[in-house]
Amino acid sequence: MQKLNKEITIYDIAKLLKLSSATVSRALKDNPVISPSTRISVQETASKLGYRRNNYASNLREQKSYTIGILLHELQSNFIKNVLSGIEKVTYEAGYHLLIAHSNENFEKEKNNALNLFNKRVDGLITSLSFNTERLDHFKPFQEKGIPVIFFDRVEENSAGTKIIIDNYKCGQIVTQHLIDQGCKKIALVTASLNRNVYHQRYNGYKDTLESNNIQVKKEYVLIKDLSEASGIEAANEILQLNPMPDGIFITNDFSAAVCMQILKDRGIRIPEDIAIVGFNNDAITTIVKPQLTTINYPGYEIGQVAAQKIISHLEGVTDILASNVVVNANLIIRKSSLRKQKEF
User: Fold this and answer.
1) Which residue, 104, 139, 132, is CA-closest to 118?
2) Does CATH number 3.40.50.1820 belong to domain 168-297?
3) CA-to-CA distance for 274 and 246, rounded, in angstroms?
4) Cβ contact 215:241 at 8 Å
5) What average pLDDT does range 122-131 have in this prediction?
6) pLDDT tens for residues 159-209?
7) Rg (CA), the chain
8) What is the dihedral of CA 156, 159, 161, 162, to 10 degrees?
9) For 190-298, where are the alpha helices, taking DSSP H only?
10) pLDDT for the residue numbered 2
11) What CATH number matches the domain at 63-164+300-328, 3.40.50.2300, 1.10.760.10, 3.40.109.10, 3.40.190.10?
12) Is the pLDDT reported for residue 252 higher than 80?
């Protein structure tokens, strides 16, 4: 028997069993042209010797790695975890592996990770951009090699390629109109960099809805944050200093909204009687906090599934990816944090 510290090849198995390397290769793949007894003998010997199939070499011959690259702006949020779950379900069933990288909201890191995934020979890429990504040159190598790239959530609206998104502008309208319908007239917005499509569109929906209801858009009521725990505390403290204080707040992230709401409650502000609050994403925390948080349901799992289905369908030659948008439905879930008029609940 061969020493286990040596990498076993099909040639070692063939020599030991006095078979051709072609026969061994077919037997390991369970090819029916090889007799059942030979297949069993080859597979048992391979197992005893510790043989490992060289997928890398095999994939190079096929010009496929059966790997999908995933490049994310972060890994911690429930939304991203749901997206990954949706992607993983579809790719696993299709026989593809995932190679995951994240930028930690840093453009330079995003560029480096994109190059690394390209060099890893991924068959396709699914990505969501960092806060400060302004150009997409780092995705050109993929396009030049015919490697499909699908953007989701944070995208460049005018770029080529398939994008999986929700209607963020409409969501901004829905949230703002809901607060107005609850009697709010001084509505603040806590959001992230307006350079990113999702936050810019939500801001536009907020602004246009205020204007259509003859409510002035106040610059001091728009707080640009990074939507972290610390920024939720910071936003609450700034809101407490505003004069007049808002009677409604739209915060475009649930965790930040929950933190902000708790600080306000600790300072004696009644939610929703004094300030009505709406978040965004429908994370698990929305049903844990008191009062439970009104939010936009952002279906991350479905977005992940759609992105994975699109890219695998393209790779398998079933459909071709076109430069288009796929808009996934998002809806408002009304809970007590915004409900000043109880009849709506």
Assistant:
1) 139
2) no
3) 9
4) no
5) 94
6) 777 899 999 999 999 999 999 999 999 999 999 999 889 999 999 999 999
7) 26
8) 40
9) 197-212, 229-241, 254-266
10) 44
11) 3.40.50.2300
12) yes
User: For the domain with range 10-53, which CATH number is right: 1.10.260.40, 3.40.50.1460, 2.60.40.1220, 1.10.1040.10?
Assistant: 1.10.260.40
User: Is-contact 179 338, C-beta < 8 A?
Assistant: yes
Q: Report the alpha-carbon distance of residue 227 to residue 257 in Å, rounded.
A: 9
The 10s digit of each residue's pLDDT in 17-59 is: 999 988 988 898 888 889 999 999 999 998 888 887 765 555 5
Which stretches of the chain are assigned E, i.e. beta strand?
A: 67-72, 97-102, 124-127, 149-152, 162-165, 187-191, 222-224, 248-251, 276-278, 295-297, 325-327, 331-333
* In contact, 77 and 281? CB cutoff 8 Å: yes
Domain boundaries, the chain: 10-53, 63-164+300-328, 168-297
Note the residue count of the chain: 345
Contact status, residue 67 vs residue 124, Cβ threshold 8 Å: no
- Is residue 249 predicted with pLDDT exceeding 50? yes
Question: What pTM value is reported for the model?
Answer: 0.79
Q: Which two tokens stand for residue 142?
A: 């993929």
Q: What is the mean pLDDT of residues 212-236?
A: 94
- Measured from the Cβ of residue 157, the count of other Cβ atoms closer than 10 Å reads 11
* Domain 63-164+300-328 and domain 168-297 have a common topology: yes
DSSP-assigned letter for residue 235: H
| 312 SS3 class | helix
pLDDT (tens digit, 9 = 90+) per residue, 66-120?
Answer: 899 999 999 888 899 999 999 999 999 999 999 999 999 999 999 999 999 999 9
Which residues are CB-neighbours of 255 under 8 A, at least 6 positions away? 77, 227, 229, 232, 283, 285
* DSSP-assigned letter for residue 286: G
- Average of per-residue pLDDT across 203-225: 97
Q: Is 267 helix (H, G, I), strand (E, B) or coil?
A: coil
What is the strand order of the sheet 248-251 is part of? 222-224, 187-191, 248-251, 276-278
